Amino acid sequence: MAAAPSRFQEELKRSKGMNTAGDWLSLVPIALIVVYQGSIPVGNELLRYLIVAVLIIVWFVIWEMIKPYITNKRSEADILNDVKAYFYQQWMSGKL
Predict the structure, then answer these.
(1) The whole model's pTM is what?
(2) Which of 10, 47, 82, 91 gets the highest tally of CB atoms within 10 A of its CB?
């Protein structure tokens, strides 16, 4: 990635950052899970923490899938695919 054009590097940096309201919106469900963890009807506290951890991981996976639609940012995978396509074109044209 260090050899990629700066437009790709800047877009990847922007994509990873918490720089839109939609990015901060992603923290609301995590905060709700943490606040209401005492309401989970499980007697074992360790099991309750495990359930909270699983819920946060599930939310993170869902957020990564819907983030491009909410924040108007491209996913990291799309950016990296464009970088690969750029270098492939450079290689095919003999510039590398």
Answers:
(1) 0.73
(2) 82
- Please tell me the distance from the alpha carbon of residue 18 to that of residue 25, in angstroms, as a whole number: 10
User: CB under 8 Å to 37, separation ≥6 — which residues?
Assistant: 48, 49, 52
Give the pLDDT of residue 3.
85
End-to-end CA distance of the chain: 15
Nearest to 29 by CA among 69, 57, 68: 57
Q: Residue 39: its pLDDT value, please?
A: 92
pLDDT of amino acid 17: 87
| pLDDT value for 51 | 95
1: how many CB neighbours lie within 10 A of its CB?
A: 9
